[in-house]
Design goal:
Layout lengths: L1 H10 L18 H5 L6 H12 L10 E5 L6 H9 L2 H4 L2 E7 L2 H14 L4 E6 L2 H5 L18 E6 L6 H4 L1 H11 L8 H11 E12 L9 H10 L1 E7 L12 E7 L10 E7 L6 E2 L3 H4 L7 E3 L5 E10 L9 E3 L1 H12 L3 E2 L7 E2 L6 H4 E2 L14 E5 L17 E3 L2 E4 L2 E4 L6 H9 L1 H5 L2 H5 L20 E5 L1 E2 L5 E3 L4 E2 L3 E5 L6 H11 L2 H10 L9 E2 L2 H4 L3 E2 L5 H16 L5 H15 L10
Parallel strand pairs: 1-2, 1-4, 2-3, 4-5, 6-8, 9-10, 16-23
Antiparallel strand pairs: 5-7, 6-7, 8-11, 10-11, 11-12, 13-26, 14-24, 15-17, 16-17, 18-19, 20-22, 20-24, 21-25
Helix pairs in contact: 1-6, 3-4, 10-11, 18-21, 21-22
Length: 592
């Protein structure tokens, strides 16, 4: 690092890096606090090539280039390599980063590779740059116009709300008009829109979460408003670099006079089908035609999709890849859809205690009976996950549930009525009171943070884990409470209980796997899907009054009653076929 610093200071006369500062988010590990995951060379080349495929340069004048989180300089280096010599001579390159060491080494790296370039690297926060202190609270100051850039290439830091801390996240939300969970790259994207020239080009690597999550709604809307998006690549579970996030690449232009009528959208996800073509790596697979199954040297196989971006006509709608095939398929499903799961009731996440060591245990039975808390209730966890009917727990888990329903609504229980529970909780009072956010919210120190609906637990419920490779939904008739790693649905209003059985059959079908992938296309590593409220509430239901739906309900109940048994597999296959037919589709084999 010291060598890099010496080289930088001696070779760059155009810039004096800012003095090293205390890193932001100093309360967490360095790697997490700055979100620094540097871009591999091959990936950086891909981004640079895609940018230059759409960039247009004037014959004269300077060409300004920015990396707002330059890290080790790999993105800028790839961009310089890809640019023609005639353009390279006219470049003014600027790099920001909050890591002083990275700034020094990045500058030295580029100076050595391309001596004589106009370089300005600053140990500075890009978000502070676009949000001027003299703006009197405005999002971007009107008193000091920001420099504009012709090319912006970036791999912003990936830092989630829980790492940023509540205060930092709230500040970013207020400054950039964001809502929900805030990732640090959200304001980076919005900040870039303020410095990208009208005909400039941006190439940025981000987490693909914003494409489909509820927290990404604001960013999706603002991206469509602030940029002319040219192409989106959802790179899914390709494992292109060492980061917990699944990457996406966006290439967009500033808000010029014209707009893109159709935004190109490509996706690539690992699959199990046999390859019909072989390529050197997942990025090379993106050159294959739509629908190709491409194999790579390490044995993995990827399904490649090319189409256009579809958000359902809503500015905040999820972004998915639309092809003629998928659109026709979804149109057929829509024509046979009576309603969605949301017609039955609200899909809710389970309870969150924020102190499971105190509230959740599987060894309550080891306590003397005269000391065992009175408020114990059976708890369903992900360990119960099995289609149709839960797996019986070898060691049942119970939760000390501190809420009840009165005519006034949901309230914390009066511990004076439950002396054994009061005594147990008092033993752990210091740990519980350490949850200062509970106290600040005006809650009792012994409350569960997210208790959900106490009156609902006795009802029949559809339960499912939030993350699984294949859909795993089951019916709970035991009145259990649902833990926060699972979601649940019960009948509300005028919903018929048979609708819940119909939903059970649909949710466990191979049909819903394909529906999920074509409608949401959001997978984690190893093909795992997210089964969360915003997706499951959109799962379709056929007309419950039809003869086929009634047969589906009857068969789902039969499977529930006979699980586990050897006879179930054949019945499940018959039920799967019925679900496909209920949506006007021929049965399609999907390996499980």
């Amino acid at each position: 690092m010291e060598i890099c610093k010496m080289m930088t200071m001696s070779s760059l006369s155009t810039s004096t890096p800012h003095p090293a500062r205390t890193p932001r988010y100093s309360g967490v590990k360095k790697h997490k606090s700055d979100g620094a995951v540097y871009t591999p060379r091959r990936f950086a080349q891909f981004v640079a090539e895609q940018m230059l495929a759409v960039a247009k340069f004037s014959d004269k004048g300077r060409v300004r280039v920015l990396d707002p989180a330059c890290g080790d300089g790999s993105l800028l280096h790839a961009l310089l390599d890809a640019l023609p010599e005639t353009i390279r001579k006219r470049l003014d390159i600027v790099g920001f980063d909050t890591n002083a060491g990275a700034v020094h080494c990045s500058a030295a790296r580029l100076q050595m590779a391309y001596p004589g370039l106009s370089l300005r690297f600053e140990n500075r926060d890009f978000l502070e740059h676009v949000f001027r202190a003299d703006g009197a609270g405005e999002l971007f100051s009107k008193h000091a116009p920001l420099e504009s850039f012709n090319l912006v290439i970036a791999n912003p830091p990936y830092v989630r709300t829980q790492i940023l801390g509540a205060n930092q996240a709230q500040l970013l939300s207020e400054r950039f008009g964001l809502s929900g969970r805030v990732d640090l790259y959200f304001p980076f994207l919005l900040g870039i829109s303020q410095i990208l020239a009208p005909d400039g080009v941006m190439g940025v690597i981000v987490s693909n979460r914003f494409l489909t999550t509820k927290s990404g709604q604001t960013v999706r809307r603002e991206m469509l408003k602030r940029f002319r998006i040219h192409h989106v690549w959802d790179l899914g579970d390709t494992k292109l670099f060492d980061a917990a996030v699944l990457p996406a690449v966006l290439v967009a232009m500033g808000r010029g006079d014209s707009s893109e009528d159709r935004i190109a959208f490509s996706s690539i996800y690992e699959c199990e089908e046999g390859p019909c073509e072989y390529v050197v790596d997942p990025l090379a697979a993106l050159s294959c035609s739509n629908g190709t199954i491409a194999g790579v040297p390490d044995g993995r196989r990827f399904h490649v999709s090319h189409g256009t971006l579809d958000n359902g006509g809503e500015n905040e709608g999820i972004w998915r890849v639309a092809t003629d095939t998928s659109d026709m398929w979804l149109a057929t499903v829509k024509s046979q859809t009576w309603g969605t799961f949301s017609r039955i009731g609200k899909v809710r996440v389970g309870v969150k205690t924020t102190c499971d060591k105190v509230f959740v245990r599987s060894d309550w039975h080891t306590m003397p009976e005269n000391e065992r808390p009175e408020l114990l209730r059976p708890l369903t966890t992900r360990h119960s996950a099995q289609r149709y009917r839960p797996v019986p727990a070898k060691k049942p888990t119970h939760i000390l549930y501190t809420h009840e329903v009165t005519p006034a609504g949901r309230v914390p229980v009066d511990l004076a009525r439950y002396p054994r529970s009061a005594k147990y909780l008092e033993m752990h009072r210091a740990m519980l009171e350490a949850r200062t956010y509970v106290i600040k919210a005006g809650r009792k120190w012994y409350e569960i943070w997210v208790p959900q609906a106490p009156e609902a637990w006795a009802a029949m419920k559809l339960i499912f884990p939030d993350i699984s490779e294949k859909p795993v939904f089951w019916i709970d008739n035991e009145g259990t409470i649902v833990n926060g790693e699972c979601y649940w649905l019960r009948c509300e209003g005028d919903a018929d209980p048979d609708w819940l059985w119909l939903a059970l059959a649909v949710a466990n079908s191979t049909f819903i796997e394909l529906f999920y992938d074509r409608k949401f296309n959001n997978k984690l590593y190893a093909g795992r899907r997210r089964f969360i409220t915003q997706y499951v509430e959109q799962f379709p239901l056929p007309d419950p009054s039809s003869a086929l739906s009634r047969s589906i309900v009857k068969t789902a109940k039969m499977i529930y009653e006979t699980t586990p048994s050897e006879a179930v597999n054949g019945i499940v296959r018959d039920l799967d076929r019925m679900v496909w037919n209920a949506f006007g589709l021929p049965f399609k084999e999907i390996s499980r």
